[in-house]
Amino acid sequence: MSITRLLTGAGVLLAATLATVAAQAPGPKAVTTSSGVYTAAQAARGEQTYMSICVACHPAGTYSAAAFRAKWNGQPLSDLFSLLSSTMPKQEPATLEPEEYAQTLAYILRENGAPAGKEPLPASVKALKQIRIDMPAKTPAP
Known about the structure:
By secondary structure, the protein is an all-alpha fold. About 50% of the residues lie in helices and about 5% in strands. The protein has a two-stranded parallel ribbon. The longest helix has 22 residues, at about 5-25.
């Protein structure tokens, strides 16, 4: 066997081994709304915004109904943020500050059972693209 064949075979074996190890290694942990992506204070401010601006068209509970959860579960959080920030409030779309939209979104997440965390929800579409909406099914009240 020539040295070239031996080295080529060893290289192929090494590449296959490395590919197998890389495939088995855990990747970066996915960030979801179940990871605590907003603060309790941020959600409280979002509730104030919701109750003063949004509730006239969207009664309390609108954003925690089964149809809402089914539509958004698994989607990037940036999609919901973009929808809110470009179309709401209905009479004056896109008139709130980005932080106000993020606060309102934090409130919506809280209402859907997502836990609060230590860092505020960012008001950036780019950052929110990294977060998936995870809304576990609500269990009916006894």
